[in-house]
């Protein structure tokens, strides 16, 4: 749910900026009768040239992790060391924090399974709908969040994970 809360507003902003850019450039290239200030459009384009992020953004598997993600990993790694799950001098595996996708999986492993609140919610939803809870939802926090979201949004219980 936390990841969804971060990604969803970003996606909405991207869509809004793409729409604004499309509308602006469409007006700039249209006949002067529909554009009240055609002489300003080329000047604006020269000063504010930009590409839409979705066209030039690398796939998530190739993107570098963010500072927030790295700080979270450091905190979780220190917590695991305190608990004795790993030795004090063990470094964080560099291949596990090379990309955003890898670091997301690594954080999921460090955090462990779903929270007690998520488990209670999953059980109550499953009982109400008389369905089973997929193993993926019980293994990972992100899997639990995805399953809960899919059920709350009215999707069928046989959602492939």
TrEMBL record:
Source organism, top-level taxon: Eukaryota
Species of the source: Octactis speculum
Region (Disordered): 21-65
Compositionally biased tracts (Polar residues): 26-52
Protein name stated in the entry: Uncharacterized protein
């Amino acid at each position: 749910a936390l990841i969804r809360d971060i990604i969803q507003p970003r996606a909405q902003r991207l869509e809004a900026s793409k729409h604004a850019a499309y509308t602006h450039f469409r007006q700039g290239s249209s006949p002067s009768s529909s554009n009240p200030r055609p002489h300003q459009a080329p000047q604006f384009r020269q000063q504010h040239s930009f590409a839409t992020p979705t066209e030039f953004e690398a796939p998530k598997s190739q993107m570098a992790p963010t500072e927030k993600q790295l700080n979270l990993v450091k905190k979780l790694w220190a917590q695991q060391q305190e608990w004795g799950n790993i030795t004090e001098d063990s470094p964080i595996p560099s291949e596990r924090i090379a990309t955003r996708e890898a670091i997301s999986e690594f954080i999921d492993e460090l955090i462990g399974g779903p929270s007690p609140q998520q488990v209670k919610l999953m059980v109550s939803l499953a009982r109400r709908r008389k369905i089973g809870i997929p193993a993926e939802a019980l293994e990972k926090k992100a899997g639990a969040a995805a399953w809960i979201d899919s059920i709350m949004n009215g999707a069928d219980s046989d959602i492939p994970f």
